[in-house]
Structures are given as C-alpha cells and as structure tokens.
Design brief:
This is Glycosyl transferase. By secondary structure, the chain is of the alpha/beta class. About 50% of the residues lie in helices and about 15% in strands. The protein has 14 helices and ten strands.
C-alpha cells in the first residue's frame, strides 16, 4: 500500500486502495472509444521457452480493452518464428509478430543502414524501435504501453494501471512510467537502480552542481523499470539508445520534448519479480556489468548535451563521490532489510558497488575517446523524411510474414 507523498517534479499516482480490477477495466473500456490502446512486447525467442511469458499471454487473453498486441521477436530462425506465431495465436486481440531476423525486415534494416539510419547494434532498444514504427504505421491506437516478457509475477492489473494515465481522455499525461517494489524471495533486488543509478545521480548533483535534468531523474522511484506508456503521438519524435541505456534514454527524451506536468509515474504492482541478470564482473560485455556501463554513458551524453564539460579529473571526482554515497546507501538498505525481516548480503552489495565504480570510469573514458559517437537511433520522423514510403513497407513486411508463416 503506497502513501500519497508527491516527491520530485513529476506526478506520482499511488495505489492507495484496493480498487477492483473489474472496475478499472470497465473504465478502460469507455476510454477505448476515444483512445484505442495497444501493447508492445519486446521478446527474445528464449523467453518463449521460459517460465514467465506463457502466464503473461494467458493473462492478456482476459484483457478486453486492448486494440492490438505487437510482439517484437529477436534471435529467431524460421521454425522458431512459426512457433512464435502459434504461441501467440491464443491472443484474442489483433496481434502481429515482428520477425526481426527474417529476410523482409532485414532487407528494410539494410536499406536504412545504407542511409546511416538503422540502429547500430542489436538489443532491446532496436526491437522496441521497430515495434514502435509498426504501431505508427498500423494507426490502430492512440495510446500504447510496453512491458517486458520475463515478469514472473505478472497479473493483468499491471497493464491496466500502466496504460490508464495515457488512455484517460480527462488526463493530460503524454508519458507514464511504471514503478513497483523490487522485493522477492525475501530479499531486495533492483541492484542497478539501488546501487548505481540513484547514488550516481546524487553524486552528479554534488560534482556538477544544480541540474533540472538530474532533479527530474531523481523524481522517478524506479527509473530502470521496463514498463512505460505513451500517447502514440509521442513515438514519432522519440530518439532512443539501442543498448541498455534505453530506459534512461526514454526518460531523457520525455524531459526534452514535454513539460514535466505532462509526465507521471504509477504504482503498477504490489509484487514484481523477473529474470535476474548476472553481475558478470569478469565480462564487461554481459550482464549487469554491460548494463551499468551503458547507463553511465547515457547519463554522461545527456549531461553533455545540456552543456556539462567532462574531463578525466572530473570523472575521477564523480567516481569517488559516487562510491562514498553508494556505501552510505548500503547502510540504509541493510537497516531497511533488517526491520522487514529480509535477507541482506552486504558483501555482495559492496562487490556490486566496486564493479559499478570501475565501469563508471570505463564509461567516462569511452565518452572522452569517442566524441563523434552517435548512439541514438534516429526518430521515425527523420526516417519518414529520408524514406517517405517506409511506414507502408514496414507494415506490409510484418503482415506478409505473419500471413505466409502463420499457417
């Protein structure tokens, strides 16, 4: 049960009472007449073989107000794509699967690459970007939500609460970010948010000085949550990273494009658990190690666009300040865990902070060594300007794939 406290500079929509799901869905059915709703599911094929997605699909079959479900499928060959079409066929909503590794979408990607407009690396950001392009091309919805496919504790009230703020025609919100408690199996999760993002934001405030952008990021209770929703109009001008910086990149774009009174966050789940990434201390290209580096780079790039000047000396100061603040946070988390009867491994928490501090310096060195780096995928407005018929061709490619291989 959340409280009513409004912290920071964006609106927080709490879960203050046990409102029935039936009541919420009935209201969303009335909103559907004015703001048709879609859901985007970015998925690896491996997630079709995992424990979470089958339950998500079964829960979505009961959702009455969604106009369309768009699934982005990565790392799948033809037989796996055919299996995915069968897997999602029980969805009663209009639904399409983007076969990102299929010849039709790869041909479109190659054409965009020839114009230097394609995503530069594989990942969730690229998958989401193509899904958003299809949503724009199909023109079936006025509001769209996105959530991950590895949520082990999924219940359909999550999507209802997530999309409600941008679907309600009496609200003025253009963007909504989901948040939730990251406690499962009697321990605190969410290490990258707890031990990297929040202490790093506080360190950057100390070293770089007052910043509306940093105050804005610090207003989000769970900035790395993979669940958010938009009015569909927002997507056209969105520039997002293709790597693990996706969530921070989306928040940055919302701050750039809209006043903060058009943005909100909503409590979407009492319990939330999903697939946990390994720390990967020995492999900087995997797990939480890569995630932490990508997030640091995304933050440094954004601050640079706001006029912040970085140097090796400043990065050393940021690292030292971050390390001290992060250790203080560990003390707070340990007390919070003890009073709630949760397990807490202080040694592993400090190991994570040490790795994140090391990766912070690596991200800073990369930033200084690559001044011409352009990590953001171009907006769909720019793509349409360069390739005017791209939307029709993207929609046609997706729907041909689904017809040809759907049996």
């Amino acid at each position: 049960m959340g409280d009513f406290y409004q912290n920071g500079i964006i609106t927080t929509l709490h879960n203050l009472r046990s409102r029935s799901l039936e009541d919420l869905e009935n209201e969303l059915m009335t909103f559907k007449k004015h703001r048709p709703m879609s859901l985007v599911l970015p998925s690896l094929f491996s997630e079709l073989e995992g424990p979470a997605l089958k339950n998500i699909v079964q829960e979505l079959t009961k959702v009455p107000y969604l106009e369309e479900v768009v699934i982005g499928l990565d790392r799948a060959d033809q037989s796996q794509f055919e299996h995915a079409l069968e897997y999602f066929s029980e969805l009663p909503q209009t639904h399409h699967v983007l076969w990102n590794d299929g010849p039709r979408l790869k041909a479109l990607d190659a054409e965009l690459r020839a114009h230097d407009l394609a995503p530069t690396e594989l990942g969730k950001g690229r998958n989401v970007w193509y899904c958003f392009g299809y949503v724009l091309a199909a023109q079936r919805s006025k509001s769209v939500a996105l959530h991950d496919c590895d949520i082990l504790t999924y219940q359909r009230d999550l999507i209802a609460r997530l999309i409600y703020p941008v679907a309600n025609p009496n609200f003025n919100y253009m963007f909504c970010k989901g948040y939730y408690s990251r406690v499962a199996d009697s321990k605190m999760n969410g290490r990258v948010s707890r031990l990297l993002v929040t202490p790093l934001i506080r360190a950057l405030k100390k070293v770089c000085g007052p910043s509306d952008f940093l105050d804005y990021l610090d207003s989000y209770r769970y900035p790395l949550a993979g669940e958010f929703s938009f009015r569909t109009d927002v997507i056209s001008d969105l520039r997002i990273p293709s790597d693990w910086g996706l969530e921070v990149g989306v928040l940055s774009e919302m701050k750039r494009n809209y006043a903060t009174n058009r943005l909100c966050q909503v409590d979407i789940a009492d319990t939330y658990d999903h697939k946990h990434q390994d720390l990967s201390a020995e492999d900087a290209s995997a797990g939480l190690s890569k995630m932490s580096t990508d997030i640091c780079k995304a933050l440094f790039r954004k601050l640079a666009t706001n006029g912040e000047v970085f140097s090796n000396e400043k990065f050393r100061t940021i690292k030292a300040t971050y390390y001290r603040i992060a250790l203080d946070f560990i003390e707070s988390y340990q007390s919070d865990a003890i009073i709630n009867g949760l397990k807490f491994d202080r040694h592993s928490e400090e190991q994570a902070v040490e790795l994140f501090a090391q990766n912070l310096m690596g991200a800073g060195a990369y930033f200084l060594d690559n001044p011409m780096d352009t990590p953001f995928i171009p907006s769909w407005n720019r793509i349409i300007s360069a390739v005017p018929d791209i939307m029709e061709r993207l929609q046609d490619a997706v729907e041909q794939d689904n017809r040809e291989f759907g049996g």
